[in-house]
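Re: that chain you flagged

S.,

Sorry for the slow reply, it's been a week of failed gels. I finally had a moment to sit down with the sequence you sent. For the record, here it is as I used it:
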Amino acid sequence: MKSEIQFRDATHEDLPDIVRLLSDDPLGREREADTSPLPNSYHSAFEAIDCDSNNQLVVVESMGGVIGMLQLTFIPYLTFRGSWRAVIEGVRIDQEFRSRGIGQKLISHAVELAKRRGCHLIQLTSDKRRPEAIRFYERQGFVSSHEGLKLNLGPGDESP
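Prediction finished late last night. Pasting the structure tokens below so you have them in one place:
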């Protein structure tokens, strides 16, 4: 039996599942704190995202549980004649549900949301240590057209 999936905006009650998904790989285990209770920094970040009309935290739900997520941020730009673009971050699918086409559907959903907002383009980054993820995004039509650079400014608030 094939389970149905639904996309919806995340609620605060989804936060433990979201953090579980973010921490469920080698890189995520290095930087996330999937503990109970969750550190206050997650709650503060969720509230900031939830209150910002240019941010959308999308979850994938199946059989009453959260099995995937991503964050979509809409940014106004002066380039391309003052157009908007969308940035995808934090894409995760629960390990148990991978290789079932759910990630592709989630990315397609994000692309549709960006189109509805009138975005000129959609972009994302993926850690070079995740070659499978990079190949996945390339299969979805993303191209490696720019070199991305980041500057780490230090750890986030890790207090509970």
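What I noticed first: The mean pLDDT is 92.

Talk soon,
D.
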